[in-house]
Design brief:
globular; 7 helices; Arc Repressor Mutant, subunit A; RNA_pol_sigma_r3/r4-like; sigma factor; 164 residues; transcription; mainly alpha; Rna Polymerase Sigma Factor, Chain: A; sigma factor activity; RNA polymerase sigma70 factor
Length: 164
């Protein structure tokens, strides 16, 4: 590959690596698994980059590749790549900013999300990232209507999990 393609890839990856880290956090439970998944997603992005035509935003394309890679590995290695435990992601707040009630709500949300299947997790993740339904649909390869319907069902499912 030519160096300009490589420079473009590295630049885009540096600018948007948080996307990959967030997906890794969603599908792994420890630092080593996170690093392994990050590396695998980066490899898959690099392999696919020459075919990236720019028809969609780089971030949309990266979400699609990263989520597909994570879900594929998650399904293959459900015993070695576990969903993340909330306790390992406890947010650190400055003393003045600490809100016990808010932390408990976040903890409940994480526990509920971890009971969802891998596709539902991906949809919730993108929804919480403030992605619109058009981008969610494009990333997950489903129709916008289907994304909305799935999200409404997931909201109901999460409500039942949180308030049985």
């Amino acid at each position: 590959m030519n160096s300009s393609l490589e420079q473009s890839f590295v630049s885009q990856l540096k600018e948007h690596q948080n996307i990959i880290h967030k997906i890794c956090r969603l599908y792994t439970s420890d630092e080593d698994s996170h690093k392994d998944l990050f590396q695998e997603i980066t490899i898959q992005l690099w392999k696919a980059f020459p075919q990236f035509r720019g028809d969609s935003k780089f971030t949309t394309w990266a979400y699609r590749v990263a989520l597909n890679t994570a879900i594929t590995l998650y399904r293959k290695k459900t015993k070695s790549i576990n969903t993340i435990e909330f306790d390992s992601t406890i947010h650190r707040f400055a003393h003045d900013d600490y809100n016990y009630e808010e932390e408990e709500q976040i903890k409940l949300l994480y526990k509920a999300v971890h009971q969802l299947n891998d596709i539902e997790k991906a949809l919730v993740f993108m929804y919480l990232e403030d992605k619109d339904y058009t981008e969610i649909a494009e990333t997950l390869g489903i129709s916008e209507v289907n994304a909305r319907v799935k999200m409404n069902r997931i909201k109901g499912k999460l409500k039942r999990i949180v308030n049985p």
